[in-house]
């Protein structure tokens, strides 16, 4: 079996085929011009946003004041190394990165009191203590966030309810201190606390009612259940209480003069035998 010979084409036939292909491709057969190289493009200068300064308000009484609504770690990055505290607006959102930055750098973030000045918010008029008693679950994170939010706040050891209230009563009478008690039974804790001389305790389940009660009674102790307040709400309430002057209590709540010079306590409510405590 023989293989058929491959067809051969003459030069004219080949040229005709090429012309037909070029015609179908829309090319008229003229030599193609080489593309002219383009000049290197010059980068277009785009306006750069200036770095946002960490302080958008003047420092007041030596304390930097930040007017941003949202305070982040980057917002605090430019603070001087010797900063002890920085004031933010009363409704500022403080992100976890900002809290971490403050903790690592060793300064306090002070939230302004609504309607108050940063100078008033930057200085605590009295010591502030944070205590917990008989709370369901672990509330150490909640109490720690309050300690971070209130500059100079101190946390008392978690013990029994009576012991915690006795410690708070001691600081209230000796140091004119105020504080917050996170309690599993806030009404019982409030009643027990108010049996101690020097303590004016109030409790409520919402921010507005709690602050109103604290103002009316010139309270130096707020008792709350951690279940009733978010972390942010609790911090704001504590900052408000800690930075308030408090003022004198109503006449009806003023401690009477005691002839026996002995103080009652939750653990020993009958320690004083004079008629003023009965």
Question: Your description of this structure?
Answer:
This protein is 31% helix and 15% strand. It has 2 domains: 52-122, no CATH class; 124-254 and 262-278, Ribose 5-phosphate Isomerase B, Chain: A, CATH 3.40.1400. By secondary structure, it is an alpha/beta fold. It has a 5-stranded parallel beta sheet, sandwiched between helices. It has a 4-stranded mixed beta sheet with strand order 1-2-4-6. It has a two-stranded parallel ribbon with strand order 3-5. The protein has helices spanning 11-24, 96-105, 118-121, 140-149, 161-175, 186-193, 207-217, 231-243, and strands at residues 57-60, 63-66, 70-71, 85-88, 93-94, 108-111, 128-133, 154-155, 178-183, 201-203, 221-224. Helix 4 crosses helix 8 and helix 7 (207-217) packs parallel to helix 8. The chain is built from 8 helices and 11 strands.
In short:
The chain is α/β, with parallel strands linked by helices and 278 residues long.
Instruction: Compute the CA-based radius of gyration.
Output: 37 Å
Beta percentage is: 5-15%
SSE string: HEEEEEHEHEHEHEHEHEH
Strand order of the largest sheet: 8-7-9-11-10
Number of DSSP helical runs: 8
- What is CATH's topology name of the largest domain? Ribose 5-phosphate Isomerase B, Chain: A
Q: Would you report the number of β strands? A: 11
Secondary-structure map:
Layout: H1 11-24, E1 57-60, E2 63-66, E3 70-71, E4 85-88, E5 93-94, H2 96-105, E6 108-111, H3 118-121, E7 128-133, H4 140-149, E8 154-155, H5 161-175, E9 178-183, H6 186-193, E10 201-203, H7 207-217, E11 221-224, H8 231-243
Parallel strand pairs: 2-4, 3-5, 4-6, 7-8, 7-9, 9-11, 10-11
Antiparallel strand pairs: 1-2
Helix pairs in contact: 4-8, 7-8
